[in-house]
Amino acid sequence: MIQDTKRQTKDADLTRRAHHSNAELSDGPVVVLFVGIHGNETAGVIAAERVLKELSAADGSVNGSLYVIEGNSEALARGVRYVDRDLNRLWEMYNTENDFSAFVDQEVPAPVEYLESLRIKASIEEILEKHDGDQQEFIFADLHTTSSESCAFILLNDTLSNRALARKFPVPQILGIEENIHGTLLSYINNLGFRSIGFEAGAHTSEKSVTRSEAFIRLLLHNCGLLRLELPALKKAESEIRAYSEIPETYFEIRYHYLVDDAEQFRMLPGFRNFHMIEKGTPLAYDKGKLGRAPESGRIFMPLYQKKGDDGFLIIREVSPFWLTLSAWMRESFFHSLLRFLPGVDKKDEQTFEVDREVAQYLVKEIFHLLGYRVTEKDRWTYVCYRR
Ligand SMILES: [Zn+2]
Q1: pLDDT in tens, 321-357
Q2: Distance in Å, CA 282 to ligand 1 centroid
Q3: Among residues 301, 318, 335, which one ends one of the domains?
Q4: How far apart (Å, rounded) are the C-alpha atoms in residues 266 and 249?
Q5: Least packed by Cβ within 10 Å: which of 31, 132, 167, 178?
Q6: What pairs with residue 171 in β-bridges?
């Protein structure tokens, strides 16, 4: 538990939310932090607590509102990633007409995380309703840590407004996470139309992860104008989250994603740090007794060194600034209206295209990515491209 809201609410679940603002319903940005979405990742919880404490003593200089939403309370209490389901993989349900209420109301005990997610969603809705402002006023960030040693980095769904928010932080930025990891809280928030970024501070138990999470929150508040830092404090926070010198503070894209059926049977070979350079063919992990090698060169990303989770490892590669600039330009352009004339491309609605992979073999992903679409495989023959 971090700190209760000032207001009493009839829904006791919502009191888990912490709140600070200079005045009730003040103007200015609304920053919402999620912490402890994974219960074994406490760095964000501790860091948010520290910043909140300080903010309550600095009322005069605060312009806007900060909310902290505690994620998986049950898993935090037990010190585990999750109890029954990964709370950061089930949010696709909430972008449909349904949610998990029907499961929770049944007599059979539902997964703990169904209820946790309903509570988090209720907290988000209450904040949105209370401020009822422009979408641009809201900024969401989700704080995590990793099972391997790592520098800090940012994960984002590749929209231009997310890029603009993320690039102010001197850390590597990983684009397009939503295509590989489904059902994240960040994707849910993005689909609601808000900016949101994920911050990964470093290893779960490292003291540096707390320092970096705290620096990230301070920089976020500074960048959005909620609480400005004096120059020395700004420099200090930037140096605290800065990546190791051998890892460029640039954009990376995900090239490969190794999914694990059963984490108990997966064993990453020792010694891989996040962002470690690897060559094609490098032995990486044993899964069900079989040795797996890197299918391409790049940098290893989020190697799994714990017995819970679905993502064995990913391989990422730097994206050239040229493509980033070109894609920013194209997304604002008339090119979208030409997509439906491409061979094998079928327009489903204003935001969605389906692509026949047999007909449109080459550059499909590249073209749709440039224009800001999320590309997922519907089946072996079809891509679904959705405008973010
Ligand atoms: Zn996490």
Answers
A1: 777 788 777 777 777 787 887 888 888 888 888 888 8
A2: 26
A3: 318
A4: 31
A5: 132
A6: none
